[in-house]
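S.,

As promised, the zinc ion run. Input:
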Amino acid sequence: MKRLLTFLSILLPGLLFVAPAFSFAKVKVFACEPEWAALAQEIGGEKVEVFAATSAMQDPHYIRARPSLISRARKADLLLCSGASLEIGWLPILLQKASSDLQPGSIGYLMAADVVTMLEVPVVVDRSMGDVHPEGNPHVHLNPYNLMTVGKVLADRLSGIDAENASLYKDRYGDFSSRFRAAISRWESEAAVLKGKPVVVHHKSFAYLIDWLGMKRVGTLEPKPGIPPTTSHLKNLLQKLRSGPADVIIRAHSDPDDSSEWLSEKTGTRAVVLPYTVGGDEQSGDLFALFDRIIGLLRETNGVQQ
Ligand SMILES: [Zn+2]
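Predicted complex:
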């Protein structure tokens, strides 16, 4: 008995020391794109450890399922991605090695496209023509209301995974959504001058932004999402723009520049690169700064003084 007590007196302080370390373990969030990593950080604060699988300079349609990504996904507690086939070329490979809690339908599997209203949903799913948006447009984060919707679901999921900190996630979502809602009002009034303005895009990455701001897409350099511009398509587009010109030609950093520069030269319409996500340029360091920057650049091309 005495020996047992001696043993426990050695062991127990160790246990007491170890136990809190377990209860304070951070929730590991695997975010497929930088916007979701930024959102997870907003909602989870110090209680989450966030990993972003891609950078703002990469095209999330085309990522290689590297062993380092597979290993990160295997250790994750929650997966937060755009969904709707954006990550179809790499996420299924990562999921093969991930835990059952990360599989579709589980608490740790959160696809933004599953919880927001999608744009450009085709009547019939058809991948045969190489369209990389077979389930609708997956670039949902550029409507800031969608970020609030996903943030709310994310707070619920984090609470389910880490019940001890449920009130913290709820409070952090409340704080984020009130700050973001105020910012949205400001962005909407700043962007009022852009309403109805005709734009040409390279890829349909900015569809939700254009829809939110009430701008008008009058052309797309890609004949179909993911299909590089062809000479005949560009010629037709040029013809169309001669009778109804656009105000600006928009592309993301990961889009090739040759077609938009060619069209800009032919039409005299300015071509701009907009940050597509957090980290897209030096001024777009978080979700708030991203929209500040995008709207600032669009106003600038429209001749509005900052
Ligand atoms: Zn796309």
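The pocket of zinc ion is lined by residues 61, 132-133, 139, 203-205, 225 (CB under 6 Å). Confidence is low (pLDDT under 50) at residues 1-21.

- D.
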